[in-house]
Specification:
Elements (H helix, E strand, L loop, with lengths): L2 H13 L9 H8 L1 H22 L3 H20 L7 H35 E2 L2 E2 L4 E3 L2 E2 L17 E5 L7 E4 L5 E9 L8 E6 L6 E2 L5 E3 L5 E3 L5 E11 L10 H5 L2 H4 L19 H14 L1 E5 L2 H18 L7 H6 L1 H30 L21 H8 L2 H11 L9
Parallel strand pairs: 7-12
Antiparallel strand pairs: 1-2, 3-4, 5-13, 6-7, 8-12, 9-10, 11-12
Helix pairs in contact: 1-3, 1-5, 3-11, 4-5, 5-11, 9-11
């Protein structure tokens, strides 16, 4: 794999267009812009790279090439074989040596770009990892009397691990599939691995009067008219070696409801990484990723990466400690300028996507639901129609029975 291809592969990971099976949240936006991002990686980026390297070519090399072209014409007009001219051979050798040197510089710049973006990007987030020497890190400091620093400073933290939600999707024939979470054992520490598994059957429970206390749980069921398949999940501790993709799909696909009534779930929905993936596995991936992905949104990704690029160039590219002469420093300025040009272009493109995420995060949230807690002493002043609604609410009645051991409650007053 050549250096440009390695850089493009890493940038695909950073731009997160290698996850076409996820179609929620920021992934939906990235997927909608996947074609634009791919065009940038395959067309615009190589053009920017080529332009930057062209600008960085030595003027001396251009002068040698002009001299070689003029000498070639003179020798050809005089009928002298080119190989007999020592000047011709000397110019060719100089240009070839310069081209080899440029190729080496090109590889070095690609390696620096790959190292820089790999260093600051980690599993979906950009983290401040300003390496000074070896395992030592440098902390940005502006002269404050007291400085508190942490790796994810100046970032919004979005934890979705306990923000559980149900999931619905519609098949091509109009029937629906409903993923329902019925039990969740949330993490209190990081010692145990948790994942989504198919829920176990639970029989219903009733009180003395025959009212239901706990509903029945059927792991997989369909409604009476067969228009919806419901699959119940539990989020619980699993073996550390277990993979989420292997925990539920096979058991669901083997169920009679899926085998006959909802056979479309077994249809192929392949990706480049998983050519044998089914429709069910695609939606399982969407559902589990949506409920377990934690990530950071940088408040100023462009400014952060530009500052870190300056530090990286001074510390890892120029290496001031190792420069022995002014000539050595002067010779490294052109490659550094080329590196900065290419990296700045990539950073600007990354910052556009991150700033869009930030706008979504900072946007005022809409109220999805409101619940009121009213003490019992306000019942006398409550409108009769509202009071009737409260007294006939089964969840409210059940809670009063549990809290106050009330057996008989009126349905109206």
């Amino acid at each position: 794999m050549n250096p440009l291809t390695e850089l493009q592969t890493k940038l695909r990971e950073i731009f997160q267009i290698d996850r076409p099976d996820l179609d929620f949240g920021i992934y939906k936006i990235l997927n909608s812009k996947a074609q634009e991002i791919e065009h940038y990686l395959l067309q615009k980026l190589p053009q920017t790279v080529q332009a930057a390297f062209s600008d960085g070519q030595s003027s001396q090399t251009a002068a040698w090439q002009q001299e070689l072209d003029a000498l070639t014409k003179t020798l050809s007009d005089a009928g002298v074989p080119l190989e007999q001219s020592s000047k011709y051979q000397e110019l060719k050798n100089k240009i070839a040596a310069a081209a080899q040197s440029n190729a080496g510089e090109e590889r070095d710049i690609y390696n620096h770009l790959l190292t820089f973006f790999s260093r600051y990007y980690e599993t979906g987030d950009f983290i401040s990892q300003r390496r000074y020497k070896g395992d030592a890190y440098a902390v940005p400091y502006s002269g404050e009397e007291v400085l508190l620093h942490w790796a994810n400073k100046d970032q919004y933290y979005t934890k979705s691990g306990e923000n559980f939600s149900n999931y619905r999707f519609t098949l091509s024939d109009g029937r629906r599939v409903f993923f329902k979470l019925v039990n969740a054992n949330t993490a209190k520490d990081n010692d145990n691995k948790r994942a989504f598994v198919l829920a176990e059957y639970r029989a219903p429970e009733y009180d003395e009067e025959g009212e239901i206390l706990r509903e029945e749980i059927l792991p997989i069921s369909q409604n009476a008219d067969g228009s919806q398949l419901t699959i119940c999940f539990a989020y619980q501790v699993v073996d550390k070696k277990a993979k989420q993709a292997d925990l539920a799909a096979a058991e669901i696909l083997a169920h009679d409801c899926v085998q006959h009534a909802f056979a479309e779930l077994k249809a192929a929905a392949p990706t480049e990484r998983n050519p044998s993936r089914t429709v069910l596995e695609k939606h399982l991936s969407d559902y589990t990723q949506k409920n377990t992905a934690d990530y950071f949104i940088h408040k100023d990704l462009g400014g952060f990466l530009r500052r870190e690029l300056d530090f990286y160039i001074k510390n890892d590219v120029i290496k001031l400690d190792n420069i022995g002469s002014e000539a050595a420093l002067s010779g490294s300025l052109k490659p550094i300028q080329t590196l900065r040009t290419i990296a700045s272009d990539i950073i600007a493109f990354l910052a556009q996507l991150e700033n869009f995420q930030k706008k979504l995060w900072e946007k005022k949230k809409l109220v999805a639901g409101v619940h009121y807690l009213i003490t019992l002493n306000h019942f006398q002043s409550m409108p009769s129609e509202l009071l009737d609604e409260v007294l006939t609410n089964p969840q409210q009645r059940e809670q009063w029975k549990n809290l106050f051991a009330v057996k008989d409650l009126p349905l109206s007053i």
